[in-house]
Amino acid sequence: MEKKTPERMCIGCRGMFPKKELIRVVRLTDGTFTLDFTGKKNGRGAYLCRKKECLDKCLKAKQLNRAFKCEIPAEVYDKLKEEFDRQS
Fold first, then answer.
1. Which residues partner with 10 through β-bridges?
2. Cβ atoms within 10 Å of 38's Cβ, excluding its own
3. Average pLDDT score over the chain
């Protein structure tokens, strides 16, 4: 019997993808935000797929703010932009 791959929803396009294909934004227990590429850091997480359109949609609609129910620092968005530029 095959082991089931965990799937998570992208907050940009609302599509379901395997967890390993997504970028996770994490609010750590001390209230800071970071990008988690391992998917194992403790804290509340939100996922984005690796499409530039999803990042743009997320920024425009402030979907990270909605996912975490608080204001997200600009540095988090800058880190996400850098990661997407690195992939291109």
1. 47
2. 7
3. 92
